[in-house]
């Protein structure tokens, strides 16, 4: 993007003037399949509630029944509470059960998919591939499809953990921010109030996200670095944009006041968890950082531990991710590329900077902020490969380069549908068959302990924590 042309790249949508019914029908198909994957046997797979899920459920019931409003709970290493209030409402409406406890996660996980589609479309990521928009929201559709059949997202959409709520709030704030920072139209009809109301909405969502999961505290870094770079590179309309930035930050800070006051009164709660797991506590920072970086790449493409046996990126999405990284790096002067790379890099910072037990769920969960950016990068790469292959075939057959009208052809929708079928079958097999048969099994000792405790009725029983957890 050249200085002085503030909205040249962002104002275009990747799908042309409209998305069209074919794209919407395809998106509905993706959402339907994603909902089915997240709902089937929700109370039986995983086999039983984990210790964290159980503690969360008890806290959700306590907060709802006592009408206790608090932004933070210090037990179980400290946790933000917004998701627990959502769980409390669901448990109150539908009764106490494993299905009810996990229902909120499943619905929130499905809601994330259309939001990712809209963000990919609004950021105009198709413009990174070609000057002609490729298909009706092609990048957004591929990103939404990749997330829908991702093993990681499927797994965490089926367990009652609070981090899943961060994703839809994150995507909604990115969409609002892009509408305010890069309005679709330019000129005298687009006043500062139209910009500022979108940025105020983005600030509201950013403030709310602080009540979901610890990793949300990194989001201001993404926006701050991006805005600083853009203000330096592009001086046009700077006063209006600085005013919008002030609105964005003020609203986010105002919404965060209850959490800030809590930490002022309980300073040990703010950073106790982060300090306990930071690699800065060790004596070899750089080797630990390098080791974590290698493992993060391994998380994307390989396996080895129980959840990582099935990486988040299959062969297609993995190749697309590598190509997408190269495309965005080569076009880093474009706002969409810069923002996407910052989003992905900062999102993995909690995993890179913390001590890891690579066989635990929390290792992958700490990088939850980066998940949407990962699939957007993969979608950019896949779209690039499809476009290059199609252009090459036309030249090989003696045809001229693809005309502009072909970019909106419905035939392009076969790409996300085929991707969904290919990746979805592998995910269904891994999660529904391989995971239960190899990892999600109860031990005989646990069954015996459970049988004994059930037979005690209402008698007080003291149980070792490891038996209780199982």
Structure description:
Helix 14 (about 315-330) crosses helix 15 (about 335-345). The chain has 21 helices and two strands. The radius of gyration is 23 Å and the shape is globular. About 65% of the residues lie in helices and about 0% in strands. The chain has helices at about 20-40, 50-65, 80-95, 100-120, 140-150, 150-155, 165-180, 190-210, 220-235, 240-255, 255-265, 265-275, 285-300, 315-330, 335-345, 350, 360-365, 370-395, 415-440, 445-455, 465-470, and strands at about 70-75, 80. The longest helix has 26 residues, at about 370-395. A two-stranded antiparallel sheet has the order 1-2. A hairpin with a 5-residue loop joins strand 1 and strand 2 (about 80). The protein has about 475 residues and is mostly helical.
